[in-house]
Amino acid sequence: MKNIIGNINKAFDHRIRLGIMSILIVNEYADFKMLKELLGATDGNLASHTKALEKEAYILVEKSFIGRKPNTRYSATKKGREAFKKHVEAIEKLLKQ
Amino acid sequence: MSTEDYLKDITEIKNMMNKSSRFFSLSGLSGILAGIYAIIGAAIAYYLVSTSGRDYLILHSKIFNYILIDLAAIAILSIVTAAILSNRKARKNNETLWNGTSRRLLAAFLIPLITGGIYILIKIYSNHYGHTGSLMLIFYGLALVNASKYTIGNVKYLGYVEIILGLACAIYPGFGFWFWVLGFGVMHIIYGSMIYFQHDYSN
Question: Which of B1, B12, B100 has its CB closest to that of A18?
Fold first, then answer.
Protein backbone atom coordinates (compact mmCIF):
# COMPACT_ATOMS: atom_id res chain seq x y z
CA MET A 1 0.00 0.00 0.00
CA LYS A 2 2.74 2.46 0.92
CA ASN A 3 4.57 1.60 -2.27
CA ILE A 4 1.53 2.36 -4.40
CA ILE A 5 1.02 5.73 -2.83
CA GLY A 6 4.70 6.44 -3.45
CA ASN A 7 4.03 5.98 -7.15
CA ILE A 8 1.20 8.52 -7.18
CA ASN A 9 2.93 11.47 -8.73
CA LYS A 10 2.34 14.89 -7.13
CA ALA A 11 3.26 16.58 -10.41
CA PHE A 12 0.09 15.17 -11.98
CA ASP A 13 -2.14 16.02 -9.09
CA HIS A 14 -4.21 18.57 -10.98
CA ARG A 15 -6.85 18.28 -13.68
CA ILE A 16 -5.05 20.56 -16.16
CA ARG A 17 -1.68 18.86 -15.74
CA LEU A 18 -3.27 15.44 -16.03
CA GLY A 19 -5.01 16.64 -19.18
CA ILE A 20 -1.83 18.05 -20.73
CA MET A 21 -0.02 14.74 -20.19
CA SER A 22 -2.95 12.67 -21.53
CA ILE A 23 -3.03 14.74 -24.70
CA LEU A 24 0.73 14.55 -25.22
CA ILE A 25 0.82 10.77 -24.68
CA VAL A 26 -1.45 10.13 -27.68
CA ASN A 27 -0.28 13.01 -29.87
CA GLU A 28 3.23 13.51 -31.20
CA TYR A 29 2.92 17.15 -30.19
CA ALA A 30 0.33 19.82 -29.42
CA ASP A 31 0.50 23.59 -29.63
CA PHE A 32 -0.68 26.07 -27.03
CA LYS A 33 -3.95 26.79 -28.82
CA MET A 34 -4.87 23.12 -29.11
CA LEU A 35 -4.22 22.50 -25.40
CA LYS A 36 -6.20 25.59 -24.48
CA GLU A 37 -9.21 24.54 -26.55
CA LEU A 38 -9.20 20.97 -25.30
CA LEU A 39 -8.72 21.78 -21.65
CA GLY A 40 -10.80 24.93 -21.50
CA ALA A 41 -8.10 26.72 -19.52
CA THR A 42 -7.09 30.38 -19.54
CA ASP A 43 -3.73 31.44 -21.01
CA GLY A 44 -2.16 32.19 -17.63
CA ASN A 45 -3.45 29.02 -16.02
CA LEU A 46 -2.24 26.80 -18.83
CA ALA A 47 1.15 28.56 -18.96
CA SER A 48 1.78 27.98 -15.26
CA HIS A 49 0.93 24.28 -15.53
CA THR A 50 3.06 23.70 -18.63
CA LYS A 51 5.92 25.48 -16.85
CA ALA A 52 5.58 23.14 -13.87
CA LEU A 53 5.70 20.08 -16.12
CA GLU A 54 8.63 21.52 -18.06
CA LYS A 55 10.52 22.04 -14.81
CA GLU A 56 10.14 18.33 -14.05
CA ALA A 57 11.46 17.61 -17.59
CA TYR A 58 8.22 15.74 -18.34
CA ILE A 59 7.45 17.84 -21.39
CA LEU A 60 9.55 19.53 -24.03
CA VAL A 61 8.73 23.09 -25.05
CA GLU A 62 9.74 24.34 -28.48
CA LYS A 63 9.19 27.94 -29.46
CA SER A 64 9.17 28.84 -33.13
CA PHE A 65 7.53 31.19 -35.61
CA ILE A 66 4.87 30.35 -38.15
CA GLY A 67 5.25 33.30 -40.46
CA ARG A 68 5.38 36.14 -37.96
CA LYS A 69 3.22 34.52 -35.33
CA PRO A 70 5.00 32.90 -32.41
CA ASN A 71 4.07 29.28 -31.91
CA THR A 72 4.77 27.11 -28.88
CA ARG A 73 4.83 23.39 -29.36
CA TYR A 74 4.74 20.84 -26.56
CA SER A 75 5.69 17.18 -26.59
CA ALA A 76 6.10 14.55 -23.89
CA THR A 77 9.64 13.48 -23.01
CA LYS A 78 10.64 9.86 -22.39
CA LYS A 79 10.88 10.66 -18.69
CA GLY A 80 7.40 12.19 -18.78
CA ARG A 81 5.89 9.17 -20.52
CA GLU A 82 7.40 6.78 -17.97
CA ALA A 83 6.32 8.90 -15.00
CA PHE A 84 2.79 9.19 -16.38
CA LYS A 85 2.57 5.45 -17.02
CA LYS A 86 3.65 4.75 -13.42
CA HIS A 87 1.13 7.26 -12.14
CA VAL A 88 -1.76 5.70 -14.07
CA GLU A 89 -0.73 2.20 -12.99
CA ALA A 90 -0.66 3.34 -9.36
CA ILE A 91 -4.17 4.82 -9.65
CA GLU A 92 -5.46 1.63 -11.24
CA LYS A 93 -3.94 -0.48 -8.44
CA LEU A 94 -5.50 1.78 -5.82
CA LEU A 95 -8.89 1.47 -7.47
CA LYS A 96 -8.63 -2.32 -7.58
CA GLN A 97 -8.19 -2.57 -3.81
CA MET B 1 -7.69 11.80 -2.37
CA SER B 2 -10.65 9.47 -2.33
CA THR B 3 -11.48 6.61 -4.67
CA GLU B 4 -14.01 8.85 -6.35
CA ASP B 5 -11.34 11.41 -7.17
CA TYR B 6 -9.10 8.75 -8.69
CA LEU B 7 -11.98 7.43 -10.75
CA LYS B 8 -12.56 10.96 -11.97
CA ASP B 9 -8.88 11.23 -12.89
CA ILE B 10 -8.99 8.03 -14.95
CA THR B 11 -12.13 9.22 -16.74
CA GLU B 12 -10.47 12.56 -17.45
CA ILE B 13 -7.36 10.86 -18.84
CA LYS B 14 -9.41 8.65 -21.18
CA ASN B 15 -11.58 11.56 -22.22
CA MET B 16 -8.61 13.79 -23.07
CA MET B 17 -6.80 11.02 -24.95
CA ASN B 18 -9.89 10.39 -27.09
CA LYS B 19 -10.88 13.99 -27.59
CA SER B 20 -7.39 15.06 -28.64
CA SER B 21 -6.83 12.26 -31.12
CA ARG B 22 -10.25 11.48 -32.57
CA PHE B 23 -12.85 13.50 -34.43
CA PHE B 24 -16.20 12.58 -32.93
CA SER B 25 -18.51 15.00 -34.66
CA LEU B 26 -19.15 12.68 -37.57
CA SER B 27 -22.84 12.94 -38.36
CA GLY B 28 -24.88 9.74 -38.39
CA LEU B 29 -27.66 11.45 -40.31
CA SER B 30 -25.27 12.17 -43.19
CA GLY B 31 -24.56 8.41 -43.37
CA ILE B 32 -28.27 7.68 -43.69
CA LEU B 33 -28.65 10.33 -46.39
CA ALA B 34 -25.58 9.02 -48.27
CA GLY B 35 -27.24 5.59 -48.32
CA ILE B 36 -30.47 7.09 -49.67
CA TYR B 37 -28.58 9.02 -52.38
CA ALA B 38 -26.79 5.80 -53.35
CA ILE B 39 -30.08 3.90 -53.70
CA ILE B 40 -31.72 6.71 -55.71
CA GLY B 41 -28.61 6.93 -57.91
CA ALA B 42 -28.60 3.16 -58.40
CA ALA B 43 -32.30 3.23 -59.32
CA ILE B 44 -31.59 5.91 -61.94
CA ALA B 45 -28.72 3.82 -63.36
CA TYR B 46 -30.91 0.72 -63.39
CA TYR B 47 -33.65 2.61 -65.23
CA LEU B 48 -31.18 4.00 -67.78
CA VAL B 49 -29.73 0.59 -68.58
CA SER B 50 -33.04 -1.26 -68.63
CA THR B 51 -34.68 1.26 -70.97
CA SER B 52 -31.67 1.31 -73.31
CA GLY B 53 -32.96 -1.76 -75.12
CA ARG B 54 -30.07 -3.91 -73.92
CA ASP B 55 -29.67 -5.42 -70.51
CA TYR B 56 -25.96 -4.70 -70.32
CA LEU B 57 -23.78 -1.62 -70.44
CA ILE B 58 -21.64 -0.56 -73.39
CA LEU B 59 -18.45 1.35 -72.67
CA HIS B 60 -18.16 4.94 -73.93
CA SER B 61 -21.82 5.01 -74.90
CA LYS B 62 -24.10 7.90 -74.01
CA ILE B 63 -25.67 5.90 -71.19
CA PHE B 64 -22.27 4.96 -69.85
CA ASN B 65 -21.41 8.65 -69.56
CA TYR B 66 -24.74 9.35 -67.87
CA ILE B 67 -23.93 6.68 -65.31
CA LEU B 68 -20.52 8.18 -64.61
CA ILE B 69 -22.24 11.56 -64.04
CA ASP B 70 -24.79 9.79 -61.81
CA LEU B 71 -21.97 8.26 -59.73
CA ALA B 72 -20.14 11.59 -59.45
CA ALA B 73 -23.40 13.27 -58.34
CA ILE B 74 -23.90 10.68 -55.58
CA ALA B 75 -20.32 11.17 -54.36
CA ILE B 76 -20.52 14.98 -54.39
CA LEU B 77 -23.94 15.10 -52.72
CA SER B 78 -22.77 12.68 -50.00
CA ILE B 79 -19.59 14.67 -49.31
CA VAL B 80 -21.39 18.02 -49.17
CA THR B 81 -24.07 16.58 -46.86
CA ALA B 82 -21.44 15.04 -44.57
CA ALA B 83 -19.52 18.33 -44.39
CA ILE B 84 -22.62 20.44 -43.62
CA LEU B 85 -24.09 18.07 -41.01
CA SER B 86 -20.74 17.35 -39.33
CA ASN B 87 -20.06 21.07 -39.15
CA ARG B 88 -23.40 21.53 -37.40
CA LYS B 89 -22.66 18.70 -34.99
CA ALA B 90 -19.14 20.03 -34.33
CA ARG B 91 -20.52 23.45 -33.48
CA LYS B 92 -22.97 21.85 -31.07
CA ASN B 93 -20.06 19.99 -29.41
CA ASN B 94 -18.02 23.22 -29.20
CA GLU B 95 -15.55 21.79 -31.69
CA THR B 96 -14.42 23.20 -35.00
CA LEU B 97 -14.87 21.19 -38.19
CA TRP B 98 -11.34 21.95 -39.34
CA ASN B 99 -8.94 20.97 -36.59
CA GLY B 100 -5.99 18.62 -36.09
CA THR B 101 -8.14 15.53 -35.60
CA SER B 102 -10.43 16.12 -38.59
CA ARG B 103 -7.40 16.83 -40.80
CA ARG B 104 -5.81 13.54 -39.78
CA LEU B 105 -9.12 11.75 -40.24
CA LEU B 106 -9.49 13.14 -43.74
CA ALA B 107 -5.92 12.25 -44.75
CA ALA B 108 -6.30 8.68 -43.44
CA PHE B 109 -9.61 8.33 -45.29
CA LEU B 110 -8.69 9.98 -48.59
CA ILE B 111 -5.34 8.34 -49.30
CA PRO B 112 -6.72 4.80 -49.89
CA LEU B 113 -9.93 6.20 -51.40
CA ILE B 114 -8.28 8.45 -54.01
CA THR B 115 -5.75 5.73 -54.85
CA GLY B 116 -8.65 3.36 -55.49
CA GLY B 117 -10.61 5.97 -57.44
CA ILE B 118 -7.71 6.71 -59.78
CA TYR B 119 -7.01 3.00 -60.22
CA ILE B 120 -10.66 2.33 -61.14
CA LEU B 121 -10.68 5.20 -63.66
CA ILE B 122 -7.46 3.91 -65.26
CA LYS B 123 -9.02 0.44 -65.55
CA ILE B 124 -12.28 1.80 -66.99
CA TYR B 125 -10.45 3.80 -69.64
CA SER B 126 -8.43 0.74 -70.63
CA ASN B 127 -11.73 -1.17 -70.99
CA HIS B 128 -11.47 -3.24 -67.80
CA TYR B 129 -14.63 -2.31 -66.00
CA GLY B 130 -15.86 -5.73 -64.94
CA HIS B 131 -14.61 -5.33 -61.36
CA THR B 132 -15.52 -1.68 -60.82
CA GLY B 133 -18.17 -2.45 -58.18
CA SER B 134 -15.87 -4.81 -56.31
CA LEU B 135 -12.92 -2.37 -56.39
CA MET B 136 -15.07 0.53 -55.20
CA LEU B 137 -16.30 -1.51 -52.23
CA ILE B 138 -12.81 -2.82 -51.33
CA PHE B 139 -11.03 0.54 -51.49
CA TYR B 140 -13.88 2.27 -49.65
CA GLY B 141 -13.72 -0.41 -46.95
CA LEU B 142 -9.95 -0.01 -46.59
CA ALA B 143 -10.36 3.77 -46.36
CA LEU B 144 -12.91 3.34 -43.55
CA VAL B 145 -10.73 0.90 -41.59
CA ASN B 146 -7.78 3.26 -41.94
CA ALA B 147 -9.79 6.31 -40.90
CA SER B 148 -11.41 4.57 -37.91
CA LYS B 149 -8.30 5.28 -35.78
CA TYR B 150 -9.20 8.96 -35.88
CA THR B 151 -12.94 8.87 -35.31
CA ILE B 152 -15.71 6.78 -33.72
CA GLY B 153 -13.85 3.46 -33.46
CA ASN B 154 -16.61 1.18 -34.68
CA VAL B 155 -16.49 2.76 -38.14
CA LYS B 156 -13.99 -0.04 -38.77
CA TYR B 157 -16.80 -2.62 -38.67
CA LEU B 158 -18.54 -0.86 -41.53
CA GLY B 159 -15.15 -0.99 -43.29
CA TYR B 160 -14.84 -4.76 -42.71
CA VAL B 161 -18.34 -5.32 -44.10
CA GLU B 162 -17.55 -3.26 -47.23
CA ILE B 163 -14.31 -5.22 -47.79
CA ILE B 164 -16.13 -8.56 -47.44
CA LEU B 165 -18.88 -7.38 -49.82
CA GLY B 166 -16.18 -6.24 -52.27
CA LEU B 167 -14.46 -9.62 -52.18
CA ALA B 168 -17.76 -11.47 -52.54
CA CYS B 169 -18.52 -9.16 -55.46
CA ALA B 170 -15.21 -10.17 -57.08
CA ILE B 171 -16.37 -13.81 -56.95
CA TYR B 172 -19.78 -12.97 -58.46
CA PRO B 173 -19.04 -10.00 -60.74
CA GLY B 174 -22.40 -10.45 -62.47
CA PHE B 175 -24.12 -9.23 -59.31
CA GLY B 176 -21.86 -6.17 -59.02
CA PHE B 177 -24.81 -3.81 -59.18
CA TRP B 178 -26.60 -5.48 -56.27
CA PHE B 179 -23.46 -5.71 -54.14
CA TRP B 180 -22.93 -2.01 -54.80
CA VAL B 181 -26.51 -1.18 -53.70
CA LEU B 182 -26.04 -3.32 -50.59
CA GLY B 183 -22.64 -1.82 -49.69
CA PHE B 184 -23.21 1.85 -50.47
CA GLY B 185 -26.96 2.05 -49.99
CA VAL B 186 -28.27 -0.38 -47.39
CA MET B 187 -25.12 -0.56 -45.22
CA HIS B 188 -24.87 3.25 -45.02
CA ILE B 189 -28.48 3.51 -43.90
CA ILE B 190 -28.04 0.78 -41.25
CA TYR B 191 -24.73 2.10 -39.98
CA GLY B 192 -25.78 5.75 -40.16
CA SER B 193 -28.87 4.95 -38.06
CA MET B 194 -26.68 3.17 -35.49
CA ILE B 195 -24.40 6.21 -35.09
CA TYR B 196 -27.40 8.49 -35.11
CA PHE B 197 -29.13 6.69 -32.25
CA GLN B 198 -25.95 6.05 -30.24
CA HIS B 199 -24.29 9.45 -30.52
CA ASP B 200 -26.58 12.10 -31.98
CA TYR B 201 -30.00 11.31 -30.69
CA SER B 202 -29.04 11.20 -26.99
CA ASN B 203 -27.43 14.64 -27.20
Answer: B12
